[in-house]
Amino acid sequence: MSGLAFAALVLCLHITAGESRQFTILEFSQINVTVRRNAFLSVRPSAVVTSGSWNFNGRTIAQWIGQTVSIDNAYTSRAELFTSTGSLLLKSVKMSDGGEYRVNMVPTSGSMTSATISLRIIETVTGVAVVTNNSTPLENLDTIALSCDASGTVQTRTWFKDNQPIRENGRIFTSPDRAKLTIISVNRNDVGTYKCIARNSFSNGAGETSVEVYCKYTAPKTDGNSTLSPGEFALCVFVVLLMSLCRATCKWCLRC
What we know:
Layout: H1 3-20, E1 25-27, E2 30-34, E3 39-41, E4 43-45, E5 49-56, E6 59-65, E7 68-71, E8 79-82, E9 87-90, E10 99-107, E11 113-122, E12 126-132, E13 144-151, E14 156-161, E15 164-165, E16 172-174, E17 180-183, E18 192-199, E19 204-211, H2 230-245
Parallel strand pairs: 2-11
Antiparallel strand pairs: 1-4, 3-9, 5-6, 5-10, 6-7, 8-9, 10-11, 12-13, 13-17, 14-15, 14-18, 16-17, 18-19
């Protein structure tokens, strides 16, 4: 084979290989941003692009041909397009900006290709509070449920008792989203301060409450023939009055 024929063959193979290379767009599939921050929808085409567009909820918010850019009127003050890569910058995002953004690109050679980026808007965690369904639970009788309420986007919740992580068991457990802590048949060991920390990728907040456990007063049993002496009766009356006065700090059960 002559040198000229060999060179022509190499050139032909090179052109064929170039034509078979598929045009692609490299992107981050999901971006998380807090409210009022900027969101950079970054893309990187594998070849030179002549034109393209960005679409959101069926609306074209930006498009370009060469260096000429057109941005929808609703986005002119807070959207910026970079024609070198086709990336889009959204400024001071709000909750309604969350969703899927689709970019279409037309390369200098080849067919149009699309890519999708999911933008998730995260609200700052605020107003974390722990609320109980029973503020006066009786020992060995009542079950209590503590709820960790919060505003904003909560991704995780962590529970503590007296600043120590709570270990779940058959009697103490949380709901699947850890928004509720349940304690079955409370006892004196459950007395303490319960804290919940709610978090997301950008912020966190904490709330807490104190849990007291009260004793159950059981009246004396009689068989109908037995009676209380005046001294026993007076003692029982005294105990009842004492229990009503110091119910908030009672840690033991009394029986007449």
